[in-house]
Fold this protein.
Amino acid sequence: MSSFYKRITALRERLSVVEPDTAWIIVPENRRYLSGYSAKDSMLTESSGCLLINKDNCLLVTDSRYTVQAKNEAADFDIRTINQNMVEGLGKIITLMGTKNLGFEEQYLTWKLYHEISDVLSKSFEPVCLSPLNCIVEDMRKIKDEQEIHAIEVSAAMISKVMDAVIEDLEPGMSEKDISWKIQGMIHDSGADGLAFPPIVASGPNSALPHAVPTDRRIKTHEPVVIDIGLEHKGYCSDITRTVFLQDATPELKKIYSTVRQAQLRAIEGIKPGMSTDTADALARDVIEDAGYGKFFRHALGHGVGLAVHERPRIAVTKPVTIKEGMVFTVEPGIYIPDLGGVRLEEMVLVNADGVRILTSAGHFYDF
């Protein structure tokens, strides 16, 4: 039995106790998770296909551009090709499946497509209702199986080696953009499938922006340089951040760095299965607040990593969930002070029976 069939079975079990009887899957990561079909959407309004799953059917619906790829990758699915008017063709298939209530991915479906499919389904012999799936598949993806963990481990090891090489290559006078382009070349040379996200390279005052975009600014000595990078391996992402100094940091930046590092270590040592995500966040946040920098820690402690670089669970104060064995997420506290700079340190961890295991392996930490 393939891992995809096991996931399909798990989804069917969930559908048996909710309102929708058929799941309409259009999120690319969810498609891949359930089927192995790896095609991506070039933009939100251009789909490479969808899955339709109920108790009796597993269909992958696409157009002729992707038929061969779908047949090669989605062995557990019946491939249906629609060459003209995708929405009408999709509506006919949904009706023929005996669907009464179609579950849609409300976080991804556009308003336009919702109305188009609603209009088609309302005209069928037996009108079909639409109901949100409420992130059923995303919740399934929170717990990684052995195959996923292995792919993530490889991805994390690859990006760690890239980070080591990037830091060793840094010199004063290099621009943030130049460093970013070098990173992209290194990721390509590593054998990765691609970038998990555009590299973040932020120096000096720019490092106070958590999601800074690389600029023409040239890096200088004695200032922080935040480097946040990730890659994809077999569809699975990695994510790592280091903050480095080309020469000794100022006393204030040393204090900020030491606080962030202490907060990160406190969280990594303290996170356990069964703990709530808000409690995990507090492990690091309390350290930063006690040091007087609480208002400068402006984001959650971490986020899940898998087929998407940002996925469930979110390790944050709001909407807490229980941490469980098999989850993979980042631990990335940060302090960001406008006009001065920022420090962020990020590791990926896997939750096991006793706590967490760090997956990223690059060094380059300071003992200030």
Observations:
- The longest strand covers residues 224-229.
- The longest helix spans residues 146-169.
